[in-house]
Give the backbone structure.
Amino acid sequence: MAEIIHFTGFIKGVTYKTYLGEKLNKINIDSFDINEASGSGLIKSPITEVAYSKWVSPKRTRSYPFARIYATYNSSKIITIIPVIKDEGKDGDRDIIQYSTISWMNLLNIYIVLAYYETAQKSNKKGQATRDKLTNQKFNHEFVNNQIHEILAYRQSALHWNKNLFEKKFLQIFEKALNSYDDISHRTGVIIHARVGMDNYLQKITEEFEHFKNISLKGSQNASKREAMTSHKLEYLADGLKATFSIENYLGGIYYLTPDEIVFDNDMYIIQESKNSSKESLPKLSDIQDGLFKLILFSNLDSLKLDGKPVDFVTKLKLTGKNVVGHIIFPDATVQYLDYFLQANMTVFTKKQKEIIRRLALEAENNQKLKIQVSGNYTV
């Protein structure tokens, strides 16, 4: 098993500019339906607009929403719509929102809209061995739109909005979600997960809201440790060590993150996210966006310590693909070398992939402590 090391860090604020976000489609707030909407876009009102992204599950590692949030990150006001719970039925998964997700959005100045599923259907997938499973789950879109209307008129920070939302309305929304699943179960005949555990969970939150943070942050820390002990076959992890991070902000909040790996080179710790494609010359755009989004907080760290001692660090996105000739690292590479690299891989990369690589050069050039490497997925 690979060695696991633990860092502590401090972050004051976040500044980051994205270059791989595609143009967002605009939709009028009066026509917006979360169930029909794409994964991200722009919601317009007569006086302002807000960029949105949506989650299909409150668990980050199950639905990979970060690529969608990345697509909205250059906007002046950003919301993300998250279900408080998703129950797929007794024979499926049940995920609940974690406080670490809230902390992450607070730090990135993203307004949270809490949602709950109102309708669903019993899965009749052929060959499915399980009976009690739900599919085609739909949000209560009016409940979502009411919060969006409020945020459009809201003048204070995302942190202030999120704090009020969770301290004053979370219990009520969670109860709505649980009651809704009871109704869904009754209508569809699908047995859902026992409610007693959730009722106990809510009782603890009622007794002390701070306990909610402790419950889910502890879960986040444990998940961080588990992730650090796991090698992902789809990722190219041959360079360094696994590590966990405890990061604190100026408000005193602590949250736990796990990058793919840590590389130590010339007295420099490299916090690395790795994305690999075994079939294409470059990972999918959504995978690249996911990796970049995960590095935003790391690249904005004001300080990083190992065993209480400050260390020098940089962040790096490593992209590996099939048949790539040579490698390139931004922002170190010159414009001339970029042209040479693309020429050497003229038949390897598509036109779209070449444009992505040129934009990656801009992303690394215009953001602090960020390096991006493109190379072949060599066997080691």
In short: The mean pLDDT is 88. DSSP finds ten helices and 19 strands in the chain. The first strand starts at residue 4 and ends at 11.
